[in-house]
Amino acid sequence: MRIKNYYKNLPHKTIERLSQYRRALFICLDNGKTHIFSHEIAQIQHITPVQVRRDLMLIEYSGTLRKGYNIQDLIDVISDIIDDKDGIKAAIIGMGNLGRAVLKYVRGKRNKLEIVAGFDSNPEKIGKTFEGIKCYSVEDLEDEIKKQNIKLGILSVPGDKAKDTTQHLVNAGIKGILNYSPKPVNVPDGVYLEEYDMITTLEKVAFYIKMNEEMEKEASKKDNPEKGKGR
Amino acid sequence: MRIKNYYKNLPHKTIERLSQYRRALFICLDNGKTHIFSHEIAQIQHITPVQVRRDLMLIEYSGTLRKGYNIQDLIDVISDIIDDKDGIKAAIIGMGNLGRAVLKYVRGKRNKLEIVAGFDSNPEKIGKTFEGIKCYSVEDLEDEIKKQNIKLGILSVPGDKAKDTTQHLVNAGIKGILNYSPKPVNVPDGVYLEEYDMITTLEKVAFYIKMNEEMEKEASKKDNPEKGKGR
DNA sequence: TTTTACCTGTTATTTTATTAACAAAAATTT
DNA sequence: AAATTTTTGTTAATAAAATAACAGGTAAAA
Fold first, then answer.
1. Is the CB of A229 under 7 A from strand D?
2. For residue A223, what pLDDT is reported?
3. Are B180 and B193 in contact (CB under 8 A)?
């Protein structure tokens, strides 16, 4: 029997992958597929089939031997776990390029996450509508968050505004913050925080490019005297 | 003695944190500080002081007892490891909101990563300049990448263009790709790929908000009969 | 009908990452 | 000058994540 709330012990990485699986599954569904093998999901996500099966084992979803997983069923099971059944309302704070990019990303995705408001300090943006979302003044931040029962704050303000804005969000009783700004912020216990910094990943890629090049250079140095038998 | 190329075995997570430390250190330096303790770095990054010290141990950097780490020195050591000394040239493919957001993020950061070109398919954008970076037609992608010796491609195109664009980047001999687009892409061996999907993190935050709420609800159910001795 | 190939589900093992524990050394206090 | 505090650097222990190994069952092929 499925233990009640078993999913509360799912590894963080599994949660992330479930979200990714679901998006891949939607695409497959749109392409007319009804079933999918673990190795197919794995290939899309650049992971191993075992990992896929292990994740699905953890959420106690079973496929059919030699037929794979029923895509629609699996989507439903994943959604049951990761979505709030009443939906979660989110706001974007900072309607610059980044904020608007996130808005476009999220719009039309088939999940229970609903962006209901944007905030900015720029008078030219206040009152305007982006992708169907109204942009309020940051001055109204606390009021609107409370009024509309917004639980998730997407922080896409410049670094120097991050700290203050976070404080306002916390004051308003926000439940989770996704910080896209370049500066880490602090939140009290009970507020879930995820820092999502674009520069780190960029510098990481640059590092591994550099490292690969250096390793190639060394390999060719070593190979040449021996007339390069390696590949 | 520092073993040559010791840093090639650094854990991936350490590489990520080094990038983060460095940015935090720049800010501290700007604020007039000269030294910093491990617990101070830790607090900024929401990690433990042990982890900071362990990372610095791995890069064989030593601080001064009871004085902490010399900020400028540490910045230099980290830079020595993660930066390519000749710099790495990067291009942004897709000059929509996301691409321009990344551009703004990176501009003026004191690292050896240089964004030298943008690409887009929209005729209105081609030939224009964003943040000082010229936007080329995607048709010229392969040529420009080769001509300018661009090694890092930042993919910020819509999902349906991701696959084709990646192929062009690979054809042009790109060394690393950071994929911000909502669809995973495939690259051959020798090309370093990092998928950096905004939705996953967003859904993760939503999940933990939901979970925290459910746990609170349960806790209050359990607490009430006993007149709530918990805090 | 038997054999083979294929694919799932699960446990065991290995690897990677984090945290704890503590020795040593310098500044500060008593 | 002895004791205490603070902070580093390192090793040891634990936890989390990924991978390997393999049992078992089903469809297809021989």
1. no
2. 64
3. no
